[in-house]
Specification:
The protein is mainly α. It has helices spanning 13-43, 48-57, 63-83, 89-122, 127-133, 153-168, 173-189, 195-218. Helix 2 packs across helix 7 and helix 4 runs antiparallel to helix 6. The two termini are 38 Å apart.
Length: 241
């Protein structure tokens, strides 16, 4: 019988995911009402070097590069798997890495699609309209990018990557999350999004990766390296005389 899945690098993940999602859902309306506008005004007072630095790295939240990279890795590892000896450990390892790359691709792609659909339905005005005209609110079902601020697509991308890495390589989850937080914060620093837009992107990414993890797990598609059983697993270790 297969052991229980170690979801997102932690056996306590289901409860943690519920808690994180609940905090995000509860915080969004509070941020919209009381925090977003003051934070946006504060961002206008950032030192030029900090604003320029944020602008220089914010492109790392664009999904296209990550999609191309993960697709390329999936093709590379799948090709190596086909060329490997069917009975070798190398083939199994290459197959897992191909599946992991597909998982990364799917996490970024699906979270991006979902974020764009929500953007269109919600129609939240971006901070530049608040700063220029004082406009703050929602105008659903418009294609104008200035009216599609919630959730942040960049935040959805980087948090999808972070959560996906937590599944594939649990030991990388903290650096991956730190990277996601920094890039998501740049969206607020350059006044491309409100803080609640970024939290919305995190929520979209979390839901996407949780669903994908279970989708892969139900099909037995292993994403992490497994330990090979010891050939003497049934024997007790010898002790020194």
């Amino acid at each position: 019988m297969r052991p229980p899945a170690d979801h997102l690098g932690s056996k306590q993940f289901p409860s943690r995911a519920v808690l994180l999602a609940a905090l995000a859902v509860l915080s969004i309306p509070l941020l919209m009402l009381f925090v977003d506008r003051p934070v946006t005004l504060a961002m206008k007072e950032l030192p030029a070097w900090l604003e320029n630095g944020a602008g220089a790295i914010t492109w790392l939240g664009k999904s296209l590069g990550w999609l191309l990279l993960s697709a390329g890795l999936a093709l590379f590892w799948a090709g190596l798997a086909r060329l490997s000896d069917p009975a070798s450990l190398g083939r199994s390892r290459c197959r897992r890495r191909a599946l992991a790359s597909i998982f990364l691709f799917a996490a970024v792609a699906l979270s991006g699609i979902l974020a764009n659909l929500i953007k269109l339905a919600v129609g939240r005005l971006r901070p530049n309209l608040f700063l220029s005209d004082g406009a703050y609110g929602f105008e659903p079902w418009h294609l104008d990018s200035d009216l599609r601020g919630f959730p942040s697509g960049h935040a959805a991308t980087v948090f999808a990557l972070a959560f996906a890495f937590a599944v594939i390589r649990p030991g990388w989850r903290l650096p991956a999350l730190a990277f996601a937080i920094v890039i998501a914060a740049t969206r607020v620093a350059v006044n491309a999004h409100y803080l609640s837009d970024v939290i919305g992107g995190l929520l979209v990414a979390l839901g996407t990766v949780v669903w994908l993890e279970r989708f892969f797990d139900r099909r037995g598609w292993q994403l992490t390296e497994s330990r090979e059983p010891s050939p003497t697993g049934d024997q007790k270790p010898r002790t020194a005389p």
